[in-house]
């Protein structure tokens, strides 16, 4: 065995060994020299010639993604819960409950409408300056804007300024959310070892589901312990103020995370594009549009979390289910999702992304119809069963694999931009699903649940078709993703 002794730098030793074509250095020896003081450190074996060989920290990256996403999506979805239960009564004129409900749901959708704008900004920063800057910046922006929502005066106090300021802060939340998932997914994907990319990348969405557990869980004791007058006057503010403390934790965790090794290699080789968005739109239009249409599956999530709650509890629809019971449906479904998402992602590492993803989209088309129908019956037990089945199991099939599926559509130089722009345009459309459902409910004398269910199911079908057109890249090494056959042949030559 040959070990050069002219340098104490293990990176220098590894490069020298490759130049001299000496292949007998054990892979674990390299790992030991470069990462033994960090149990998480992973170096890809040299047999993976087109995989990045920088030291990776998959567990640390995944944990940072989980914590940050949980906190950010607590902030993002606490708005959805309160917008349904409280905002129609305090931020809009009294006298028309149906109009106030639709207006409140529209402000929820505004956060999604702002996400494409945020995707352009955060995509450029992430692919030009690094993933870490996006992760820290989005966390701070989300925390500040969420805290300020809890400080807003109501319509009775300042009139139309109240909903106007609410919309402005919701836009800031949307811009932050646009960069959060794409940044966290890119970071965890690029730290993940080959063959485990699905598992480690899924931690971002597992964290997002945990955030959606925290959001209704924060409102539940307030709704149970406070009178309606107390909840409407000051109780609704508490969950927004709590976010300030939670963001401090996430900020500390993310500041200690090292930059993505794949991005580091791009920067070291001076291959970072000066205008990533230009490269994306010029060279990767097909995968970008595939992601946009596949991301319409998010309509199911917003229908389940927001319209379902409104439909079941609002006086507008007359179903009369308990808000507390519906919050428990959301909590239990998301607890199941948090635990099961990594399992489905691991399966995708074995059999591919498309079988898991398409099973989920087709299953959602059926399950969302059953869920909304079950609400129309007013049967709490039936709603609990169908809600957990949809939100906890079937929808989790899609959430488990879309992060890695979309990451595998783009090369490192435009990965964050491609994921951010593609998903956020799709999510923007999906975010207005509750508003579309509210507008369609009962139209043409149809049963209230029929047209909202048909709309959501249609979005599932569109998503399924988009996924069917994708190439499954789960066996493609990271530096080969997005490389054409011609470029690959030139590289080999």
Q: Tally of extended strands? A: 0
SSE order, one letter for each helix or strand: HHHHHHHHHHHHHHHHHHHHHHHH
Poorly predicted segments: 1-37, 488-493
Average pLDDT across residues? 84
Give the distance, in angstroms, between the N- and C-terminal Cα atoms.
30 Å
Rg value: 23 Å
From the helix content, strand content and strand pairing, which structural class follows? mainly alpha
Helix content percent band = over 70%
Q: How many strands, what sense, and barrel or not for the largest sheet? A: none
Shape: globular
> How large a portion of the residues is in β-strands, by DSSP E?
under 5%
Number of helices: 24
Please describe the topology of this protein.
Elements: H1 10-19, H2 27-35, H3 58-85, H4 87-90, H5 97-113, H6 115-129, H7 131-149, H8 155-158, H9 161-191, H10 197-201, H11 203-225, H12 228-233, H13 238-255, H14 261-268, H15 276-283, H16 285-294, H17 298-313, H18 323-351, H19 353-377, H20 380-407, H21 415-431, H22 433-440, H23 450-468, H24 485-492
Helix pairs in contact: 3-5, 3-7, 3-9, 3-11, 3-13, 3-17, 5-9, 5-21, 5-22, 6-7, 6-9, 6-21, 7-9, 7-13, 9-21, 11-18, 16-21, 16-23, 17-18, 17-19, 17-20, 17-21, 17-22, 18-19, 18-20, 19-20, 19-23, 22-23
